[in-house]
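Researcher: For the record, we're logging two predictions in this thread. I'll number them. Prediction 1 follows.
Model: Prediction 1, sequence and structure:
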Amino acid sequence: MGVPKFYRWISERYPCLSEVVKEHQIPEFDNLYLDMNGIIHQCSHPNDEDVHFRISEEKIFADIFHYLEVLFRIIKPRKVFFMAVDGVAPRAKMNQQRGRRFRSAKEAEDKIKKALDKGEVLPTEARFDSNCITPGTDFMARLQEQLKYFVHNKLSTDKLWQNVRIYLSGHETPGEGEHKIMEFIRSENAKPDHDPNTRHCLYGLDADLVMLGLTSHEPNFSLLREEVRFGGKKSQKRITAPEETTFHLLHLSLMREYIDYEFAELKNQIGSDYDLERIIDDWILMGFLVGNDFIPHLPHLHINHDALPLLYKTYISVLPSLGGYLNENGHLNLRNFEKYLEKLSEFDREHFSEVFVDLKWFESKVGNKYLNEAAGSNDEVAKKRLNENNLSLTVTEGKPAVADDEEEEDDIFETEFRQYKRTYYMTKMGVDVVSDEFLASQAKCYVEGIQWILHYYYHGVQSWSWYYPHHYAPFLSDIRNISGLTLTFDLGKPFMPFQQLLAVLPAASMHLMTSERSPIIEYYPLDFKTDLNGKQQEWEAVVLIPFIDERCLLAAMEPCNNKLTKEEKSRNRHTECAVYSYDPETDFTYSSALPKLFPDIVHCHVRFSLEEPPGVQQLYNRPSSPPPTKITCLSDKEEKEWVKDVQGITEHYLKRKGIVINETAVVLYGQLLTGRKYVPKANGVVELEKQWAKQVLPFAYQTVVKDIKAFYSSLTCFKSLDELFPPTTSVFMVGNPYYGAMGEVQDSQDVLKDGRVRVVFNVPHEPQLESLIQNQHKYCVKYNPGYILASRLGITSYLVSRFSGSIFIGRGSKKNPCGEQKANVAPLFFKLVFDTVSRNSHDDVFYEDDIWPGEDQNGAEKVAEITSWLKGHPVSSISRTSCDLQVLDAVIVERIEELVEKAKVTDTHVKTPT
């Protein structure tokens, strides 16, 4: 999950950061990395709101394979394809995983209960439990085997994959997926032959991937993710088909430029000491203060309440006086960080002062109870503790109250501010006395958490066992005296998969955990509380469940370890990252674990090895540039449309991209590049020519980048037809005849000089529909216009239009329409109704008593009788369609089905040379 609402915030603040992926404008990438858990979740439970949804494991595996193929086909990596599945996480992440799984299990139970209460009948098959997407489960073990099969199959059969090294870091390899990817990038950077111009693309859904990518300081780094529509309904079904999904590319090179602009005023304040790389490091650090998967947010610092601009504004005001930066390549400068927090802590008092007047008024009404409300809790225990500790708001006992005495008012404010914070600690953390020692331990614990996260982002895991032991963070004003702290971490070792399963799974997902005599049963409550803690959405709430004692958990598991079966032991282990590559000399049969769904690979050409890279860090810098454009003409101020174009360009940049382009003196008119294609020339030579859009667009001169030094290594490979189309190359026909047919290039030496290539197409036998298309008028139902029907029936065209639509008949009469005020809506076809509508053609609503005025006539019964007759008429079963929709008649559909069946029994393929 990363940092909730962070991606939306940066998308709105930096509107040019992302671009929609267009097939003809995708940059070249050397390495593609996939954070696999987002794909697994999307393919296994796309709609958690639908309690009727069921999906088989085989369908999940097939959908995952398809998603991987589409992503690979979009990016087309040239060197490395890295798939990372979440393994055992550090203990710091497990607490968040544990809370999330408890909440999802409870939400699933509540949804099922609501559905049953409504009388809904649920499917008998068990629904997919998303909590099984955890290292060590049966599902993850089977998925790992299927991913191995998928890699072997693609390397053996797909030429696009055969020049790429493929890494599969499965659930058995410890570490979160995105951090295993960053570890790989650091290890590659450490190699002597590393290319600093390597182009990286990372797919993932977590918002903190922006921060992770920036820690690499790589010049060419982009993030690929699905389009996120903000503000949509929660019940709206997610799009799972990758072909229907809109993908966005977020360029971190642009993010670097935006950060440079964000802190541009520092250039004038610190001069040559301004270092963008160090600014970016500090920007990453500031992002931790609003909370993430490892530590909670600081009190009242919420992204949607402008917390990030506050952090940046404070940083700009403090940095010139620090003599250095906060984050020194992953190491926290405690002295500078303390000064930054000291300035930032003014926010605590400012926030309290905003509600101070309201709280004083509230105090006059209900007394000291306001403190519990201000701290976000109604806990009566807090009130009792306040009284026991004499934490009354009346602190001026024995002193005369002077309204104009500002000093005394300040003392009252400070005292009440301290009491307000004490209430927070008492109600949130359950302490009896808020002592200086307690506050010091809170400050150290929080700073220790910040340093652990910095290490995790920059250097990898520094301690597998460390975790933040509280659900809440201390106030900024209480994080003091930290410059002299010594922060050390014990590396430890990761949990085994089964140990993590026991640590994070709720009782609802672990059917074996039923013994009330278990020594750790207290850690698995069936019911628990949540606390929004200033947030707005229920999914953001803090899940108040106890933290697991690691020693108790391991001790409880120890007697069970010897009882594990061989299959269970194979799941409860750690392994290295697997590396696969294509080897034409290797040839063996790879057996499928699901032969009915995925056949065995008879000729498998894959070489396999294990690798566990270390990680280091390197820094680079590179600007960004827009897509290339061909200039067709220049405009000056004498042109009529010039002013209109300038206004349109200026408004577009300002309102859509958040960029002020200032005064425009010159407008360029150009065509966007849509792609490139090889064009045959004389004597078998081919040239790669750029393809331009037909539409000519205006561009402001000052927004155009000139003299771009572009490097397209893969676009200068082919100089001749025989290089472009060597024998045995697979091709597809995109023209007529045989559109879509697959073919194979033959030896074409005798025709190459004429600019031709000999190809044999494997043409499938398709039904011949030309005759049916030409004679479809013979089978179509003949419809007459409404005026002809009106003429035959002797009525007006108006009546035909009304009775072929809907007539509104209301209760009562026009003079007395009260009744039940309940309308019956139906298309009606009875004589009295015809006559009434004909006489009152100007009316939109007709009433029962006006159509059947007699006292002995019951209008409601008449309407029910007509409605019943209509429902029994064949016309009622006809599906409604749009007037402009072209629909094939049933007879034509039957003829098409007959031709298709005939085509099936004939020869399916014909080889056609061309």
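Researcher: Logged. Prediction 2.
Model: Prediction 2, sequence and structure:
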Amino acid sequence: MSFANAKWDLINNEIEESSKEIAKALGLSPLLIQICRRRGYQTEEQIQEFLSSSPTLWHDPYLMYDMEKAIQRIQQAIETDESILIFGDYDADGITSTAVLYETLEMMGAQVEYYLPNRFIDGYGPNIRVFEEYLEKGVSLIITVDCGIAAHESVEWAMSQQCDVIVTDHHEIPPVLPKAYAVIHPRHPDGEYPFGDLSGAGVAFKLAHALLGELPVELAEIACIGTIADLVSLTDENRSLVKLGLQQLNQTERIGLSYLFQELQLIPGSIDEKTIGFQVGPCLNALGRLGDATPGVALFTTFDDEVAQEVVTLMQQENAKRKQIVDDITKEALELAKAQIDHKVLVLAQSNWHEGVLGIVASRIVEQLQKPTIVLGIQSDGLMAKGSARSCAQFNLYDALSYCQETLAKFGGHHMAAGLSVETVMLPGFMEAIETYAKQHPELLEDEKVIPIEEALSLSQVNVEFIDSLQALKPYGTNNAEPIFKISNILVGQKQKIGAQQQHLKLTLNSEQNQLQALIFNKGEWADSLNLQAEVEVIGTLEINEWQQNRLPQLMLKDISVKDALIFDWRTNKIRPEHLSVKKAAYLVERDALKPLVSERIDTSSKVFSMEEWIKEEKQEDFNSIVFFDCPQSKEVIQEFRKHSYTQKMYIIAYTPKSIMTMGIPTRERFVAVYQYLKTHSNVPYNEKTGELATYLKIPLDQFKVILKVFFELKFVIIENGCLSLNPESTSMDLMQSTLMKQLQEELWLERVFIYSQFSELTNWLTNMEE
């Protein structure tokens, strides 16, 4: 049973004979060759190029449509001392694109300056106001980088003012191209460029290639950062660019980058696509997310120590601020999500949310709640909400927003991500419309997570030499994923929660004489459901853990599968959205009042049962999980459940609106006190003032009510004319003959097992039939 609720898809466990032949010819492992061939590199020559540390796959920049025309115009501008403006973008790709072209033109002696738009003042892409400002300064040539392909109005305006515009971009091409002097795009409909997935920085790099007449090796370290950060395909020429760029970054002489690497504690020689993607890229992006991205260009181009240090300090400050803002908004958004537990799509809107980080927040919420999520910041005037959307499963955001377009002021995007603006008065209508769309297409929200597995290995095959051989597959990224391996027939030797909040999990995995350390971030709670010496299968990526000059294999876990039942400790009396989001689950609800509330809010693939109904259910195999929503109320039924339930994954919530343990069962002394009072006081009123008697006798009201119910059941008391009195015909009876007392004792026992026991004790009781 998988911890991550995922299906493992083993690609192929057979190594072909032809792969073995190529492996022999190249002196490499057959498995490494097989992995290359699965990724589309079939011949010996293709595999050599793919694995080479000295890439040679570079395309002729002049194969791009309009490249020659653009080069001639730029050279003319340089020769005649025209003022040139580079118009960039505010993300990492836009910043690096600008830096690449700015440095190129400066080297060529051009009169050049650059402008990066502020997302909060200028919005995305070229605009007439900025163009007009620079035309007044004498600019006669504008070159856009990482933007402009859809900027028809501003481009045509500049062209009409006798200012030529060269557009360089890589984004989706609209049906009609802007009427620019030249349009350079790797997928230009009239072009012949063989690779269409360049980033904005990649396009700028190719423009520099053409301008300089040779491959601009020294610019690769800048362009590779934009390429990695923009998540474009790391194949073909992008792979060459990133390989070359990473080599340069590991020996960089740019003082801005050197200071940044020191601040991030990145050691030269260890910088790879992961450190760029997860550490350097976010620092660059933070500038444009929160304000002005312009200082980011100086990180690459300055020769001034003081300027470099100032830029790095600013980037670190802005990134720390960005992280805190994201954390704060995510926390607030998750609180809002609680009110939308029964919604198929979450629409979360609030004032004072920073527009620049809402895409990150939406992604986090999707990751936690597994629902398409739209996060909107209501602007200060209260009239408009703007934000971002992120999707999951097969739910196409663009189609969904198109269905709701009458309620929207503006939107754009694709299947998995979108941006939108909606007038606040239209928010209720928009929420209703998108929920209607989701309910009309339930199949789009039902999607099993599939993890592709490259190969099944034994623990003995996992060693430093094998992991070192895999390094030739790097850089990893889009269309060249890091290989995931499966390891079976191993035991959990040790488990440990680590991290400041015990949020991470570290395992020692054993098999005969072999041992492997394994680590997964933000899954510390998995430790509670893992028994030591349990037999498991694991999947993950392999890396070398270097510590004090020791190099040891390490598995970065993706998922764990156990043969025994998986039980998760969700015990709480505060129901959160994730408690009602388990898919294909049997929700066991004993209290009738809770059943409709739960049934309305759970995923459509799940269903509510009483425990007795579940025991009799003939299609238990249709459900992957069991959720104990509230605490069971019958010891006999739970014993039957343990004999007749076949689902191996269980979540224990044990929600209890009124706990017997908290209320307490009345002691014999309290029964006696009430009995003696009634014996000496006749005609005690039985009405709303009965509670006053409980106060007088110093008995909690809930317990007092139980005492009276037991007395009625055992016929110790009667009511005549609205007054309580002892029944003169009653006979002495043991209080435990009361059905109510037996039920309360049974519920108390079940609460002790399900709510108040150690989780390990509860796990043993559920799985081992221990009494």
